[in-house]
Amino acid sequence: MSAPAAKVSKKELNSNHDGADETSEKEQQEAIEHIDEVQNEIDRLNEQASEEILKVEQKYNKLRQPFFQKRSELIAKIPNFWVTTFVNHPQVSALLGEEDEEALHYLTRVEVTEFEDIKSGYRIDFYFDENPYFENKVLSKEFHLNESGDPSSKSTEIKWKSGKDLTKRSSQTQNKASRKRQHEEPESFFTWFTDHSDAGADELGEVIKDDIWPNPLQYYLVPDMDDEEGEGEEDDDDDEEEEGLEDIDEEGDEDEGEEDEDDDEGEEGEVKENLAKPTKITFKEFMLFWGVYIYI
């Protein structure tokens, strides 16, 4: 006969449960401490990787300079290269008014220069021919990141010619009626040179440095939508002309077919009419016919 099962008191059950909770909490705390140690190692490697990547970037930034210079010399041979590139870029074109485009037709060269340590900032230079808008030959804007990580920017003061300040055109030309229009002229592209409110979030500067400057040719070669539409309309016109000629040919064939049918019907009618008419012969012909027949 088996021994009766030992009874476990409620107090003992609670004691065991509390012990399990204490063990679980202790294990969790130890796991958290270990995770923190591992995370510190990951952060250390990330910092080391950033330093190595920066060294590589600095190295190749120097190697790229001769090619950037050669590219600038070749671009100088293409009229209106930079204004076309900016107009074709979706983000930059949204900032361009008609007068901005006119002024940018005098833009001959754009250069982006990252500072030697790269991480401290960069400068964008715009070179212009003599133009009716301002006296400057070069307009520049620099972006800096100081040791504390605070961004800042500074730029060339634009020396506008009399009555040609494009940054003031909105206040001078827009009236109440123009404000009610659905499509309003954007602020001038050149207001960017005077805007230093948020250097850390300068979208235009980042677009020029990171998107346009590495490969401006891809935007210069963007097909003109107006030309494409014009070619499409010409193709449609050619198709319509071809269809019209085909219809005329088909109508001509149908007319010829109807004429042929009419001719055939006419010939058949003549045959039937001839068959239907009785043949008349003279008595002399009749006797001559029978005389020949009897003789034979």
Automatic annotation (TrEMBL):
What are the UniProt keywords, alphabetically? Cytoplasm, Nucleus
Region Disordered, residue ranges? 1-31, 145-194, 226-276
Primary localisation category: cytoplasm
* Subcellular location per the Swiss-Prot or TrEMBL entry: Cytoplasm; Nucleus
Q: Where is the composition biased (Basic and acidic residues)?
A: 9-31, 156-168
* UniProt key word Nucleus: yes
Q: What GO cellular-component annotations does this UniProt entry give?
A: cytoplasm; lipid droplet; nucleus
Amino acid composition bias (Acidic residues), ranges on this chain: 226-268
Q: Which InterPro entries match?
A: NAP-like_sf, NAP_family
Q: Which GO terms describe its biological process?
A: nucleosome assembly
Q: Identify its protein family.
A: Belongs to the nucleosome assembly protein (NAP) family.
Give the protein name, as stated in the record: SET nuclear proto-oncogene
